[in-house]
Each structure stands twice: as C-alpha cells, then as structure tokens.
Specification:
Layout (H helix, E strand, L loop, with lengths): L1 H25 L6 E11 L8 E4 L2 E5 L5 E2 L4 E9 L6 E6 L5 E2 L3 E5 L10 H7 L5 E4 L3 E6 L11 E11 L2 E11 L9 E9 L9 H19 L3 H11 L1
Parallel strand pairs: 1-12, 8-9
Antiparallel strand pairs: 1-3, 1-13, 2-10, 3-8, 4-7, 5-11, 6-10, 11-12
C-alpha cells in the first residue's frame, strides 16, 4: 500500500514540475504604460461662443510586456471646476489608425505652445524603457465655449480631470485652462507638461501553475475517497 501511495505522490510531483516548467509560455503578459500630458494651458485671447481649442500634446509609451492597440484605450474627461458663467464643453479623442504599440514603443505629439521639442531622447528622459517613437497627433483633448452660451470666456480658469486606461492599467491627471489670461498678449499661448505611469500590476498565477495545482488536488481527493481495499487487492493480484 505504501508503494502505491508513494507512486501517486511521485506522479503528482512530476505533474507539478512539468506545469511549472511550461508555465512561462502560458503566463499572461503585463500591461503598463506611461503618459506625458499637459498640466496647464494658457492663452491670451478670449474664447467667444462656439469656439474652442484642441490640444494634441499627449505622448503614450508602452512600458509593459504585451502590445496593445491605441484604439482600445479608454480616454475620459470631466470638468472639475470653472470660473466661467457657463460650463465649458470638454472632450477627448483618439484617432483610430490601427496603431499597435509594442513594448518599448511610444506615440504622440507636442504642440509648439509647450516649447518642448518631441524626440526620442526627451521621451527616454521621462520613460527610460522606451526605445522607439512615432510622432503623430493621435490623442487630443478639447476645450470649447459652447455655441449659444451668450458669454465670452475672458480671464477665466477651469480645471479638467482626464483618465487614460487599457486592460486594467490607468493614468489620471488634471489640466488647468487659463483663457483670456492677462499674463499673455492676445494670440499668445503657453503651457507646461507633466507625466505619470500606471501602477505596476501584480502578475496573476499562470494557467500552467493553476492547472498543475488543480490536477494534484484532484488526484489526492480521488485517492482519499477511494476504498483502501483497492491497494491490497492490486497487491494481491500482482502476487498471483
């Protein structure tokens, strides 16, 4: 009987070892990304009803181990506070060009308003894991004075919250809009940039580990509930 029990245990242990060895191929990749975004945008001109601004100064970099489609990202915006008499209309946009960001790849654009040339060295100074860069304005945030508002945005300040997420990873930030700022001449614009990285996810156990554990549990439960007579019967049959 002891020999049979040891045989079962040995086979269970072998199954676990094999599944652990195979588990890297079955493991789920990690999704993580970094973002360079505007923290403040100022313009010297007033914003009449029916007019707005679109800011393309957003860069996204894949810092994980698995690729993701840019169009799969969720991009949200919400007005936090404003000194305008009528709430501005805030929006987000992602251009779907079929772009897939591979690990180590970044994509984005920076407007001249922010006085920061966009190149790979700049991105790497913030996101060192990035090895390639696609320069294209595919992520856009909008700030508009609604048509028919009846008021012009002049010397106003508004704060907008943004969120960018994909496959459980997310980055959130706030951007301040100063419209008709007395600190700038009409027609002039200025801005500043910030950055953020999605929280490092905890890798889930691979499918191989889960399968091996379930297999061992099943075999022990089956052994525990099987009548003990089968061991002695098998031993007796071998003696005959």
């Amino acid at each position: 009987m002891l020999r049979n029990v040891n045989t079962v245990i040995s086979r269970c242990s072998l199954a676990l070892v094999l599944t652990i060895i195979a588990s890297p191929a079955l493991a789920t990749g990690i999704t993580q990304f970094g973002v360079i975004f505007p923290t403040e945008f100022s313009m010297g001109s007033a914003l009449p009803p029916g007019q707005g601004v679109g800011i393309q100064s957003i860069v996204v970099g894949n810092l994980g181990t698995t690729p993701f489609r840019l169009s799969d990202m969720q991009f949200t915006s919400s007005l936090v506070s404003t000194s305008t008499l009528v709430d501005p209309f805030v929006s987000t946009q992602i251009n779907d060009r079929g772009i897939v960001l591979a690990p180590g790849q970044a994509l984005g654009y920076i407007n001249n308003d922010f006085n920061q040339p966009l190149d790979l060295l700049y991105v790497q100074s913030i996101l060192p894991a990035i090895t390639s860069l696609i320069v294209h304005p595919d992520l856009i945030i909008g700030f508009d004075n609604p048509l028919g508002s009846g008021v012009s945005f002049q010397n106003t300040q508004s704060t907008v919250a943004y969120g960018l997420s994909v496959e459980g990873a997310s980055v959130n930030w706030m951007t301040v809009f100063n419209v008709g700022s007395p600190d700038l001449q009409p027609g002039w614009t200025a801005g500043s940039l910030g950055n953020g990285i999605s929280a490092s996810p905890v890798p889930l156990p691979s499918a191989g580990i889960l399968f091996g554990t379930a297999l061992i549990f099943f075999m022990f439960v089956r052994l525990q509930h099987r009548p003990m007579g089968w061991l002695t019967t098998d031993a007796a049959s071998r003696r005959t």
